[in-house]
Each structure stands twice: as structure tokens, then as C-alpha cells.
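Page 42, continued from yesterday. The earlier attempt failed because a stray header line got pasted into the input along with the sequence. Redoing it now with the clean sequence only.
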Amino acid sequence: SMGEGFGVPVIEAQACGLPVIVSDFSAQPELCESGWLVKGQGHWDPLSGQGLAWFYDPYVPSIVKNLEAAYEARGDTAIRERAIAFAAAYNTDKVYDQYWRPFLAELDASEKPNRAARRRAAKAKAA
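This time it went through. C-alpha cells are written below.
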């Protein structure tokens, strides 16, 4: 990928016991517990839609090298088991409870003073 974000398909593949080949860019390296990273070159793209963004040009020799490594590892059950175990940590309930719930609570706590101030201002304006 030249510009992948989180990469849910990478987690889905590993959940199925498939090691992955991903770009060594963005969030991909941290999502690749079981597989290979493709080397490449990042580049700044000032014309990317609404804003500016970094993209990644994977090196073809690195793609070929990793495809060959994946082919050689096709019967390796340990790499498949590692993929499944890694992906299991991304259970949606676990991610929600461990990361989103605390973040939302913190966001709510930081917003309470603003909501109270807006209510007071609205009451004052209505009076």
C-alpha cells in the first residue's frame, strides 16, 4: 500500500492464520506480527486531495524477496499460530473497553465545563 491507515484487512488475514506482507510504513509495521515488511521510500504529496500527505513507494525487489520468503514459509504452522494469537488481541470488545471507553470518558470530562458554560450562556440569552 502506498498510504494505508490502520489496515483492518491485515488483522483479518492474521486472524485467519495468514501471515501478511505489508509496507514498512504508517501503522503497518505494528500490525505485522506474523509476516514480512516491504522496504520503500516515503514521499510527500502536496496534491493529495484536500490536504498534504505522506505516501510510500514500495521497492519491487523487496516485494519479490518477501513473496519468496512467504512461499518458503507456506508450511510453517508456528507462523500461522503466531498470526492468530496476535490478531486475537484486536477483539473489538477488548479494544473498545481498553482504549475507546477511557478515551471517551476523558473527552466527556474535559467537555463538561464547556457544556455547562454553553447552558449558562443560553439561559442568559433567553432571559
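Notes: The CA atoms of residues 40 and 115 lie 47 Å apart.
Reminder to self: strip header lines before submitting.
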